[in-house]
Design brief:
16% strand, Rossmann fold, alpha/beta, globular, 3 domains, 6-stranded parallel beta sheet
């Protein structure tokens, strides 16, 4: 009778799903899986830190809209992954985290790297699974994959004790299941109600969130906007689902973006929210006009009505909802809905956008030294002008500056940490983006604080032959914290906010990459040209003004976290 080892069953289940990579850092408790993945179609993408492995998996999952696998060893390998898991939960990334752990027979014996892992991670994931029988490993992997991908995507944890992986069982006893959930619920009557509300308003806005991207509803959203004439704002992974260059798109929905977002939110009489949560970014719903009617469409029922009364909550897949609306508009055009109905409102928003941009134009074009960080963000945006260029932003103020500036032309081409605000995502995200799109340009803009978290992932980039270009906004320290303290306390606390001048570019040179140092704004573009022309992993260390205060710093100062 043929027998199978648990590690082989785990590897075979991953191979069967045709995943291209497992993002991982090796360890003894997962070696039984490694040995069967070696020389298989699934490549082991090893990083220098478990956190970076999960960040890479998160970025891969977000960009592909499918499950990505991270694998870590027991104890410290597991705990090192937790921040990245929490970030994946906030970004709705379908990450399957497989962790080894101490053998069942060694629990409470003080074995190497022994800890109770599942109770720690359970509140952070969609589901925490622990498999105690080797013959059920394929079944548990199937459960993990379908849970991660179904409904609102998110991370799932699967724990495989090392003695379960090393155990051998008769192949006849193995249960192999493989289910691919595909569910697109839609409420047709609610779609009609939404269109009727739209017909009765004068100043609507549509906010397209990550749910638009995960539902693959970009085309349907563009068609809907063009049929109705409703102005569109995008956010999160929804950025680019309608190009920022489209005449009906007014870019990011966040009020800190120079443009029309704040004016639109405060003056709209109807807000249609597609696949997006009402969070801090919208002052928990307070940014919207109190008299506005709210329509919210989401695949996750618990999000309907969070923080703000929703007049028309719709539990639906975003693509199915938009498709239903478009069919209704095709088959029975509704009086009062036409592409030119909201032309006066569009003109009002265009004027607001021009005024908003004009207010920051001097900073975008500043020739001052040290370099204004908005000038740096603008230079990156102007240089990364191809439709399929990928930009990753990481940091406190640095992520804010780039978010205020980036023109997103296609979906899945702009990444940042999102609402969890986790620093250190940038280099792993950029590595994953380049791995997924080896023929595209990938540029990371990162703060000098953030770059320290996963710095050795530059070595991963060089070792694995996935050249990225990183631009460091070097303002000598933790700018967002420094400025928020200045605003609340009247001074910055030196210890904890000041780093100083570090020659990061020289460290990259020592690793085998290209290092460039920039102090003048006119040298930014030539440095970008040289970096991308080199074909190497490159670091451009740009000295930016440490005194500039971002809207993010102002918001942080107002959180109430400090005593006046």
């Amino acid at each position: 009778m043929t027998a199978k080892q648990g590690g082989a069953l785990a590897a075979e289940a991953l191979i069967e799903r045709k995943i291209p990579y497992v993002f991982t850092l090796s360890g003894g408790h997962i070696t039984p899986i490694y040995q069967y993945l070696e020389h298989s179609q699934v490549r082991i993408m090893d990083t220098r830190h478990e956190q970076a492995a999960v960040f890479m998996a998160e970025a891969w999952a977000r960009m592909t809209r499918g499950p990505a696998v991270a694998m870590v060893t027991a104890g410290p390998g597991f705990t090192n992954s937790l921040s990245a898991v929490a970030n994946a939960r906030f970004s709705n990334a379908p990450v399957v985290l497989i962790a080894g752990c101490v053998g069942i027979e060694s629990i409470e014996k003080l074995d190497l790297q022994d800890m109770r892992q599942a109770p720690v991670i359970e509140p952070m994931v969609k589901k925490a699974l622990v498999c105690h029988k080797p013959e059920r490993i394929p079944e548990f992997i199937d459960m993990a994959f379908r849970t991660a991908a179904a409904g609102r995507p998110g991370p799932v944890y699967l724990e495989l004790p090392v003695d379960v992986l090393n155990a051998t069982v008769p192949e006849a006893s193995v249960r192999r299941t493989h289910t691919l959930p595909a569910c697109q619920p839609v409420d047709l009557e609610k779609a009609r109600e939404a269109l009727n509300l739209l017909r009765s308003c004068r100043k609507p806005i549509l906010i397209g969130g990550s749910g638009v991207w995960y539902a693959d509803a970009s085309s349907e959203l563009v068609i809907f906007a063009e049929k109705t004439g409703v102005p569109v704002f995008t956010v999160g992974m929804g950025r680019g689902t309608v190009s920022d260059l489209h005449p009906l798109c007014f870019e990011s929905s966040l009020g800190i973006r120079p443009g029309a977002a704040l004016h639109a939110s405060m003056n709209a009489d109807l807000v249609l929210i597609l696949g997006n949560r009402i969070t801090l970014y919208y002052i928990f719903g307070e940014v919207f006009n109190r008299e506005a009617r709210i329509i919210q469409v989401d695949i996750e029922p618990e999000e309907l009505g969070r923080n703000r009364t929703v007049d028309l909550p719709i539990f639906s897949d975003v693509r199915a909802f938009l498709s239903a609306c478009n069919r209704i508009l095709d088959q029975e055009p509704l009086q009062g809905i036409s592409p030119d109905r909201f032309a006066p409102w569009i003109s009002e928003l265009q004027k607001a956008r021009e005024q908003g941009r004009a207010a920051v134009q001097p900073q975008w074009e500043s020739s001052e030294m040290p370099i204004h960080p908005l000038r740096l963000a603008r230079e990156v945006d102007l240089f990364m002008d191809r439709e399929d260029d990928i930009v990753v932003a990481d940091g406190g103020d640095t992520q804010i500056w780039m978010g205020m500036t980036r023109t997103v032309r296609r979906p899945g081409r702009y990444l940042d940490s999102g609402l969890f605000g986790c620093l250190g995502v940038g280099i792993p995200y950029a590595n994953a983006a380049k791995l997924l799109h080896p023929d595209k340009r990938v540029c990371l803009i990162i703060g000098d604080g953030s770059v320290g978290f996963n710095f050795m992932e530059f070595e991963t980039s060089i070792r694995k032959g996935i050249p990225i270009v990183a631009v460091i906004s070097n303002d000598l320290g933790w700018g967002m914290i420094r400025h928020s303290q200045e605003l609340r306390l009247g001074h910055a606390i030196q210890d904890g906010t000041y780093i100083g001048k570090v020659h990061y570019h020289k460290l990259i040179e020592a690793l085998g990459g290209l290092g460039l140092f920039v102090e003048r704004p006119e040298d930014i573009r030539p440095a970008l040209q040289e970096a991308f022309a080199s074909g190497k992993t490159a670091c451009i260390n740009v000295m930016t003004d440490p005194t500039t205060i971002s809207p993010g710093s102002v918001a942080l100062a107002n959180l109430g976290a400090y005593k006046a």
